[in-house]
């Protein structure tokens, strides 16, 4: 099974999901999404396939979120996608993509649903 994890090693949820994937005997493709972010189109696709909205896929903590006033409910999905594309640290993590589905694995055990 091919698995890709959009990973941030500084995140305990991301490390936990990666550990569960490896415990299942699978070595995933690891994408450090801060250094190598998905394109805007890829990001939109991942979010949609996970059954989320851009707001639901956005990390709502940190300086960038506050500086860009991203809590503003009038912002459109396109504006939120633009912000995540420009500032990949705003992408919540970890997203895991398998042949079965895509999930935002918070908590990490969610990854078991798609292994």
UniProtKB/TrEMBL annotation:
Superkingdom in the source lineage: Bacteria
Broad EC category: oxidoreductase
Ranges annotated as spanning the membrane: none
Recorded GO MF terms: arsenate reductase (glutaredoxin) activity
Pfam families reported for this sequence: ArsC
E.C. no: 1.20.4.1
Entry keyword Oxidoreductase: yes
Lipid biosynthesis is among the record's keywords: no
Assigned keywords, A-Z: Arsenical resistance, Oxidoreductase
Catalytic activities: [glutaredoxin]-dithiol + arsenate + glutathione + H(+) = glutathionyl-S-S-[glutaredoxin] + arsenite + H2O
Family recorded in the similarity comment: Belongs to the ArsC family.
Protein name: Arsenate reductase
Organism, as annotated: Pseudoduganella umbonata
């Amino acid at each position: 099974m091919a698995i890709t994890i959009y990973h941030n090693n500084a995140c305990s949820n991301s490390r936990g999901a990666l550990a569960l994937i490896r415990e299942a005997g699978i070595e995933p493709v690891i994408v450090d999404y801060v250094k190598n972010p998905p394109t805007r189109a890829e990001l939109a696709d991942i979010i949609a396939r996970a059954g989320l909205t851009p707001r639901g896929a956005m990390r709502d903590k940190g300086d960038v979120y506050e500086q860009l006033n991203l809590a503003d409910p009038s912002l459109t999905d396109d504006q939120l996608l633009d912000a995540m594309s420009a500032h990949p640290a705003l992408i919540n993590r970890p997203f895991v993509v398998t042949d079965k589905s895509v999930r935002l694995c918070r908590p990490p055990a969610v990854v078991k649903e798609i292994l």
